User: Which sequence fits this backbone?
């Protein structure tokens, strides 16, 4: 059995915890949940990250960028695997270096989150140079409003009747500006050409009730275009599929036969 501890009990962590507690993931069991300060009490709650690490073989981060920085190094240095959902935290080059190169012996595992095709994109990058990697994400405008926006952009999103471009730039800048809603950009960047060469456009559109990701990868291996339309979760910044991709990953880790490796 793989003992799985969870940091966070929100839209992602709570769904994964329920699946583990009910025995829906073969060969995995819930070892405990470390909730955010101030959030409601939950079942199988532990008080400290040290308690969670001590009882776990793998720790799932489902609590945001700060949780990766605050707890990630301790998890990996203790020899536990760390499965990250807030992949955008790894835009911090120093943190990424600490987690990958210096801590050990645990492994850093990245959730695919709300997108797919990553195995194909990684294979294309191995085959030859990628000339273009681009992500266009469209969400309801209210899910994108952020403190850094000027009055004009904020008003455009608040009163939008059609699509409004909220951001156009690099994945590095995108994940800093939208830390809670564009982790997929970091996942795509780390799978292909990196944060600075991956192009990202973020659009708010009141006509959509879905979270739409359009991915273009072009290079020596070919040209790949993937369009994904996800149902949002109770948290409009997160796709409902995200925790189930974590559940799928945990099942793969414990399954002797992995399909599509």
Assistant:
């Amino acid at each position: 059995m793989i003992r799985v501890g969870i940091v966070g009990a929100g839209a992602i962590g709570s769904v994964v915890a329920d699946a583990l507690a009910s025995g829906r993931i073969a060969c995995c069991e819930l070892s405990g949940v470390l909730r955010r300060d101030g959030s409601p009490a939950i079942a199988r709650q532990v008080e400290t990250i040290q308690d969670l690490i001590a009882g776990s073989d793998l720790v799932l981060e489902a609590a945001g960028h700060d949780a990766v920085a605050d707890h990630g190094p301790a998890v990996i240095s203790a020899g536990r695997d760390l499965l990250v959902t807030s992949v955008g935290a790894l835009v911090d080059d120093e943190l990424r270096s600490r987690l990958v190169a210096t801590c050990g012996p645990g492994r850093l595992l990245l959730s695919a989150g709300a997108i797919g095709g990553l195995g194909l994109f990684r294979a294309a990058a191995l085959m030859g140079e990628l000339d273009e990697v681009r992500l266009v994400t469209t969400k309801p405008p209210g899910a994108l409003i952020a403190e850094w926006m000027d009055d004009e952009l904020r008003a455009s999103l608040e009163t939008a009747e059609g699509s409004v471009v909220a951001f156009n730039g690099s994945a590095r800048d995108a994940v800093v500006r939208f830390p809670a809603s564009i982790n997929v950009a970091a996942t795509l960047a780390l799978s292909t050409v990196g944060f600075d060469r991956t192009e990202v456009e973020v659009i708010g559109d009141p006509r959509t009730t879905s979270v739409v990701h359009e991915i273009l990868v072009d290079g020596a291996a070919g040209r790949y275009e993937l369009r994904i339309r996800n149902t949002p979760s109770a948290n409009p910044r997160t796709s409902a599929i995200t925790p189930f991709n974590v559940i799928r990953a945990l099942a793969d880790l414990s399954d002797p036969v992995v399909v599509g490796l």
Q: What stands out?
A: Residues 118-230 form a domain with the Dihydrodipicolinate Reductase; domain 2 fold (CATH 3.30.360.10). The chain has nine helices and ten strands. The longest strand covers residues 130-139. The first helix runs from residue 13 to 21.
